[in-house]
Amino acid sequence: MNGIKAILFDIDDTLFASTQFSQTARANAINAMIDAGLQAKESDAKKELQSIIKELGSNSAKHFNELASRFKCKDKDHCIAAGVWAYHNTKSSISTYPRTASTLLELRESGFVVCAASEGKAIKQWDKLIRLGIDNMFDHVFVTNSKEGSSGVLFYRSISKILGLMPNNILMVGDNPKKDILTAKKAGFRTIRLKQGKYIKNSCTADISLKNICQIPKILQKPPKRHLLI
Ligand SMILES: [Mg+2]
């Protein structure tokens, strides 16, 4: 692949196993809530939590409050606090997929502009990068609150403008066939799909599909010199 000057990386399930982390963190939270007196079977609480997340959205801060109110418990506040503590405690153990940091550094040293680009809440996404120990490895971190679709195309177009680069000089790397690949392609970006996370079995129209982030430097022709940021 040649002509690439900047590389954008999605965060969740691209730089770290986000889906796996969420499942572990939620299971730990439920166990802690049951220990604190939530009157529920683990499997029932899991199902209920899943429907709460669907109803309130994954970024709501009220998941455990709602869960505590849907089951009997001796002391609701004790249960909520236990759930929140266990969830955040699990966060301290997150780590990147193997060879992620070394690959980001290698790409930067080769002269590419290296950025993160994802959907979500900016502070939450920064929190993940800090916990992963890679927050200072990016030239830019772009986060959009908008959902998929045409607004997603606008997100990629705005990145192209900020970087001062033509879309076909920018490579988007991600796990999500729709949001990371299809939408970035619509904006004229080149794309690499990493086959990992919850969409691993979905079909994808990416230019290239890879199993591991560390395969990226080998397939890119190095830029002649580091692109100067405005
Ligand atoms: Mg993702």
Short description, anyone?
With 230 residues, the protein is of the alpha/beta class. The chain is built from nine helices and eight strands.
Describe the structure.
With about 230 residues, the protein is an alpha/beta fold. The protein is about 45% helix and about 15% strand. The protein has helices at about 20-35, 40-55, 65-70, 75-90, 100-110, 120-130, 150-165, 175-185, 215-220; strands at about 5-10, 40, 70-75, 115-120, 140-145, 170-175, 190-195, 210. The chain has a six-stranded parallel β-sheet with strand order 5-4-1-6-7-8, with helices on both faces. The chain has a two-stranded antiparallel ribbon with strand order 2-3. It starts with 5 loop residues before the first strand and ends in an 11-residue tail after the last helix. About 35% of the residues are buried. Magnesium ion binds near residues 12, 13, 14, 174 and 176.
Summarize this structure as a short list of keywords or feature phrases.
230 residues, alpha/beta, six-stranded parallel β-sheet, two-stranded antiparallel sheet, 9 helices, 8 strands, 14% strand, elongated, binds magnesium ion
How does the overall form come out from the CA principal axes? Answer: elongated
Number of helices: 9
H-E order:
EHEHHEHHEHEHEHEEH
Q: What hetero molecules are in the model?
A: magnesium ion
Regions with little confidence, pLDDT below 50 for 5+ residues: none
DSSP strand tally: 8
Radius of gyration: 20 Å
Arithmetic mean pLDDT: 93
Structural class: alpha/beta
User: What is the first-to-last residue Cα distance?
Assistant: 25 Å
In terms of DSSP E residues, the strand content is 5-15%
Tell me about the largest β-sheet.
Answer: 6 strands, parallel
